[in-house]
Amino acid sequence: MPLLSNKLNSKAMQTVLAFASLILLIVLFALISIKEQYPGGPVYSAFLSGANIVTILQMTAVNGILAVGITFIIITGGIDLSTGTVMTFGSVMAGVCISMLGLPVVIGLLGAVLAGGLCGFVNGASIAKLGLPPFIATLGMLNVTKGLNLIVSKSKPIYFTQIPGFADIATKPILGIPMGVLIFFAAAALAAFILSKTIIGRYCFAIGSNEEAARLSGINTATWKIGIYSMSGAFFGIAGIVMASRLSSAQPALGPGYEMDAIAAAVIGGTSLSGGEGSILGTVIGAFIITVLTNGLRILSVPQEWQLVVTGLIVIGAVYLDIVRRKIR
Q1: Tag placement on the chain: N or C end, fewer CB within 10 Å?
Q2: CA 73 to CA 123: how far, in whole Å?
């Protein structure tokens, strides 16, 4: 029995279970959405149509990049409620650089990433140096960036329609896959490398497992926390670029609510809110689970308010399972 419990609680098994859940959802929605092309004609699955698959990929790209970024923070035992508004701040700063100031697109893209990283730096410093709880520090940043987005843009969308090639960043297909999705996969691959092969990844797990023990072993936990939050903020800025490109505009009111989907994706993928556990692959699978669930419910014409209820229940279930896992261990 102990051996069986250890296998069920292993990171690999959690990833396998998440992937199995994703496949089950896909099969379920594919079967439920089967329709006749016309009375007496051939049948097809609306869920598995080519256009809908592309829609799922595009929907997952932004949330997936956000989830990848927040995975680092959750592994350290922290949380970031400003994820969505920091993403929007990145897209707004890109709009300021490119559309308002007329700077080259590359400068605007760099500005979005740096803006996200700066917000992460402030979050990390508030937590590590000022001793603020992550919940309070990032909640404050949520309101700060939410206000700045409206102030900088004067409460109006900043459009990129006159910028040649900007929309291609997220929508241009390469071998049938939108470029925004490829950016998501590239960001996930980079994050997986950082988490598993670099010192910052090892310190993420060390801090999340036992921060005091990590500090006593000689790790400057404050400095590394600031670095981790800054890096995650840079990922949020990349998500802002993809979102702005997809919409061909920076929408200053966009953002609130995205943090919940990002956290849900990480938790469903096996990242523990208690810290010390998680994987990028699991987070990617979790992001697809959230998107497939949302998309499938929309195809079935389930009202949006019930979609939120279902997603919330799944997050509660995932957190409860994590608690049960830890008790068993």
Answers
A1: N
A2: 11
Helix (H) or strand (E) holding 187, with range, is helix 179-197
Per-domain boundaries in the chain: 57-255
**Dist. CA 120–CA 134, nearest whole Å:** 11
The residue with tokens 């992460």 is 120
pTM of the model: 0.91
Q: 257: left (phi > 0), else alpha (psi -120 to 50), else beta?
A: left
| Nearest CA-CA partner of 139 in 85, 77, 65 | 85
- Say if residue 299 is exposed, middle or buried (CB neighbours under 10 Å; 0-12, 13-18, 19+): middle
CA–CA dist 103, 197 (Å, integer): 36
Element (H, E) at 43: strand 43-45
pLDDT along the chain (329 residues), means of 10: 50 81 91 71 78 90 96 95 96 93 92 96 96 94 95 92 87 89 96 95 94 91 96 96 93 90 90 89 94 89 84 81 74
Instruction: Extract the tokens encoding 44.
Output: 């097809």
Q: Is 70 exposed, middle or buried (0-12, 13-18, 19+ CB in 10 A)?
A: buried
Neighbours of 164 (CB within 10 A): 8
